[in-house]
């Protein structure tokens, strides 16, 4: 376990009281809190180095560009990218996936082609493919999940028989916590001739990620779920694919030369970074990565998994609580329901005790339909959470049970 | 800071547990669907209006305690009322929740609906209490488009 007594003071927001209670932040799958090192890195950038990047010939601009490009190198190292030029900064996972759908997808997917996603995908890894398939009159095939919340490998095999152009899946499910066998899924998809898109929003913050070992083609990540600012994120891709793709956004920075009626494109990754980038976000993301690397991603993963195990054990001891998702191969995401108390009522009641959980469909409506629930409550852990947080969660849940008379 | 018992009053918990008029309406001539895209709550509302009078009203669907109790208490409140009276109740209820200018001059006019006064202290939950009322309004106006809390002006 990580030493949370040392870590917690490094997160200023955790000193906040909620209704007189210690802040128990258990909505880390939605977004994480930020350590001083990240906040300071952003303030330092604006205090000392701010200028537009890749443009100015003066010292400040050179420093800003160096910091921005150093952040790209840091991201590349963190996920073991093929090359640093294969790291495109985006606003987050959603934009990264939309980039792939709009650029690679529109170029390669035609009528009668198939795109495969899974029933546990987040809307951000479903809707961009729906839009693409509707535009191209292609077929979107959703792979079913097993009863214990894993990708159904036999249905996956059947979906691959259609020789899909694209196969997209989450490395870790935001709604179930399932850690998918991503390398195996990628290998099978490649054997069927598909390009593989991995939604890394929930894996990058919580596991040691090696995109080359996964051997996917595109990997999308969000910074704000891993201690970095909102609006930070990246698409990590095989450089040869990016080279061959048309741009996503037209504008400054992404061009080589502009004529009256046409333009030529800058080299990758800049071809995909039209407009002034979010330099602050890139620098914050790099600072967050350094922070996580110092903790050690294996220890981070072990810490969260231990908390999840404890939480599941404690929650399932409460009569009426159902925990969703697999029993093993799961990250620190614990979705549950409690009797017939609606998750939104649970979230409101827990909030009175300073306990922040997510309630709702978690942007996974197709999955909710399969689970047969309108909504779940979800507790999700990160480096600063500890067993005290689980105690607070359980105590608050018992209060909710009393208020609603559950179990009856 | 409001207490939980201000929000989850006994009458609300009771109507959540045993919602009234949780059924389809025979001979309904007004209906509408309401949906909260943020949380997935949905309500299907039916009413029978004879002349100006709401002679029967019922709802089905799923939602949190606040939205379910609000729908239940609403059906009880507007049953037998004229559409104009129902509209006046809607405005009074909405005013109570949002502190708008249409707030009730006399809270007693709201009867049991006054149990939702505590919702005002929980801004994240105001839409839960309002969903059924927006849906009723759409039904009475015979609007075909489903109501969503995101299009409602609260």
Task: Describe what you observe in this structure.
The complex is a heterodimer of chains A (408) and B (154). With 408 residues, chain A is α/β, with parallel strands linked by helices. Chain A is 40% helix and 16% strand. Chain A is built from 14 helices and 17 strands. Chain A has helices at 4-7, 36-49, 59-79, 93-108, 127-136, 153-160, 182-191, 211-214, 239-244, 279-295, 297-316, 343-351, 365-371, 387-404; strands at 17-18, 21-22, 24-25, 87-90, 114-118, 139-143, 166-170, 195-199, 218-222, 233-237, 255-258, 263-265, 321-323, 333-338, 355-356, 358-360, 376-380. Chain A has a seven-stranded mixed β-sheet with strand order 4-10-9-8-7-5-6, with helices on both faces. Chain A has a four-stranded antiparallel β-sheet with strand order 13-14-17-16, covered by helices on one side. Chain A has a two-stranded antiparallel sheet with strand order 1-2. Chain B is of the alpha+beta class and 154 residues long. Helix content of chain B is 37%, strand content 19%. Chain B has helices at residues 4-7, 10-17, 65-78, 83-98, 126-140; strands spanning 30-36, 41-50, 53-62, 147-148. The longest helix of chain B is centred in the middle third of the chain and has 16 residues, at 83-98. The model of chain B has no long low-confidence stretch (mean pLDDT 88). Chain A binds chain B through residues 19-20, 341-345, 348-349, 352, 359-361, 365, 368, 374-375, 403-405, and chain B through 1, 4, 7-8, 13, 17, 38-42, 62-66, 68, 122, 124-125, 128.
